[in-house]
Amino acid sequence: MTPINAVKSVFMNYATFRGTASRSEYWWWTLFATIVGGVLNALSGDLDNPNTAFSTLALVWAVGILIPGLAVTVRRFHDAGMSGKWLFTLLIPVVAVIASIAEIVGIISSATEFNDDIVISIAGALVPTILTALAVGLFQLIVTLLPSKTAEQGNTHA
After folding, report:
1. Closest by alpha carbon to 107, among 92, 93, 91, 123?
2. CA distance 156 to 142
3. pTM of the complete model
4. 94 and 53 in a common domain
5. pLDDT at 123 > cutoff 80
6. Range of the domain at 144
7. Helix 116-145 to helix 66-79 angle, to the nearest 10 degrees?
8. Is the pLDDT of residue 112 over 90?
9. Are residues 90 and 42 in the same domain?
10. Which terminus of the chain is more solvent-facing, meaning fewer CB atoms within 10 Å of its CB: N or C?
11. Which residues touch 55 (CB under 8 Å, ≥6 apart)?
12. Cα separations in angstroms, 90 against 36, 56, 139, 140
């Protein structure tokens, strides 16, 4: 699949979570979305000199591609022979971040002064969250890199 056809396919199947998406469709879409988002974010400026128009456009872009990005990922999971429900593993790091924030707030509120022990405790609270996010990201990367699985190979989504 060509890059242009992949992007067209994702937009034409904007919220289609059934069916399959080939590796090339998924990766061309991912590259396109990343480049557009990166350019818009670069043009947004920084905190000292923000460009409101491009910041707004970057936000609209991010929100606008959320559903098609999730849909093409679910279809890619289907193509690899896995359930799209595995995408819910993305919520695990979110829960870990919330737990880490709660733990860090507890550490800071119980501290009488800010010292090296506090920094070590905060780092210790963040390590499991970072490892969890890396594990989930690695899992999702591996699934999206798997070859297509045919119905004869047991793919119930093909």
Report:
1. 123
2. 20
3. 0.85
4. no
5. yes
6. 83-158
7. 60
8. no
9. no
10. C
11. 44, 45
12. 23, 26, 10, 9
Same domain, 47 and 120: no
Q: Which residues contact 77 (CB under 8 A, 6 or more apart)?
A: 83, 84, 86, 87, 143, 144
Same-domain status, 64 and 94: no
Query: pLDDT digits over 52-83, tens only?
Result: 889 999 999 999 999 999 999 999 999 999 99
Q: How many domains does the chain have?
A: 2
CA 40 vs CA 37, 65, 108, 139, 148: distances in Å: 5, 13, 36, 28, 33
Q: Burial of 41 by CB count in 10 Å (0-12 exposed, 13-18 middle, 19+ buried)? A: middle
* Residue 157 pLDDT class (50, 70, 90 cuts): confident
What is the residue whose two structure tokens read 């010292």?
Answer: 115
Residues 108 and 146 reside in one and the same domain: yes
Same domain assignment for residues 51 and 88: no
| Angle, alpha carbons 16-20-24 (nearest 5°) | 110
- If asked whether residues 59 and 95 sit together in one domain, one would say no
Q: Facing residues of 45 across strands?
A: 50
